[in-house]
Amino acid sequence: MLEKLATAAREEWLLGVSVGTCAILFGFGPELADALSAPPGLAALFGWLFLVVLGSCLAVVRHADHLAVRLGEPYGTLILTLAVTIIEVMSISAMSTHGAHNPALVRDTIFAVVMILLNFMVGISLLIGGWRHREQQYNLQGANTYLSVIIPLTVISLILPNFTMTTPGPTLSSAQEVFVALVSVGLYAAFLGVQTVRHRAYFTLGDADQAGDHELPQGSARHPATHAILLAVYMVPLVFLAEQLARPVDALLDTLHAPAALGGVVIALLVATPEAVGAVRAAAANRLQRSMNIFLGSVLSTIALTIPAMIVLSRLTGDKIVLGLQNANIVMLVLTLTVSLVTFSSRRTNVLQGAVHLVLFGAYILLVFQG
Q1: Among the four 53, 216, 243, 295, which has the fewest Cβ within 10 Å?
Q2: How many domains would you assign to the chain?
Q3: Domain limits at 226?
Q4: Residue 370: what are its φ and ψ, rounded to 5°?
């Protein structure tokens, strides 16, 4: 018994750090914020909270991966993407509600997630996988199914608001927001029916992608219910920590006169990094199908679930949200979607495709600071 407790303590030590951080901030948050109000102190507080939140996100992904071992594809990847989407919604909500209100934060965060997933994550995965294995295979029908939903939802959510005439600026009317929310959730529900029931074979590539995929972490011999409970327990302090992270992020952006879009990039890095680890690891192990399920599934869940959730939250709080991208960002989004179509138009990938996606990500980062 003692040995099991010691093993659990070694494996889940980060939960103690997360809870302890919550306790410190709950008891001494205002005093700590005042003491660290200078830029070096703000940077230290931001770094501390960012690492704790990121570590908690990685722990959530670790337990989701354990469940994936038992359930196999596509259910394992589905658990992972839904868990990360919940974290994303919580983080955006906390920063929108308790930070300095930024009506474009939802747009900036979702756009940053799309750029990180479709350019940086895809680029790194294809580059590493292609370098180690020359060419890698995936199920073309699965990729086409993902993109057939991602492209229209992305355009409707992030580009169409710039061209509607009912409201001024890159915003939607109430009826239009309801339509976007219902269409997004409805299409995602239809996609899940295809992914998990009618056409599961689209999202696998032979027996290696079924339950027991050996490149996933095996960990301890815990019951799946234990991993499900720990996954939920890790997510509880994330709500409070995301709220606390909003304060140093806003203060640092103001102090450094950084672009407002950088706040969205910070949130996107938090929610995309855990999935990037899984996707790159899978590609390096020559399991590009799982890698593709992760990054395309994450983009789809971000667009189809996060935007409706934030529309509902904006209606409840009375805060306005801006969804339409501006200027060069529209070009970057269209270019990214077009290149993604080309990349996933055959059953094989190589290093050149990965390099192209990384170049697009570099252009996006440049435009964040010099748009």
Answers
A1: 243
A2: 1
A3: 2-369
A4: -135, 60
